[in-house]
Input
Amino acid sequence: MKRLFIAGLSAITILPLAANATDDISSLPLVSEVAPGAIQISPHVPHMGEHWAVPANLPGGPIYCVIEGRVVCVEYMFDQADLAEGMSWTRLDTGIETPPITHIDVEFMPDGIEPHPVPLYQLHIYFADRAVLEGH
Output
């Protein structure tokens, strides 16, 4: 299954990573401009900020991680069962013109995330440097 997941996300390795990490979030897009219909779906999460999404896009995403009104990352969620069945996700829409990417995290959540309590993987595509995120 890990091979399937890694193969399914291999396209991510070709995404351009920022040569110089974003050390200031003020240049990042505002969630109010990116997704005017988005609602806050979680309180502040350390190093990610609040999570916002357009309800029709849940649970898969895009979900926006927001600090001080700015989108610092875009998140997608993939159910483990869907991966095991060989499901593909192509042309995922971020909903924004993507700022330079500083890093990408893929995390397994065995208990899921409320209100979607099934084993899943989270894909976070960050536009802010880790050091900046650690301050939030």
Observations:
- The first strand starts at residue 39 and ends at 45.
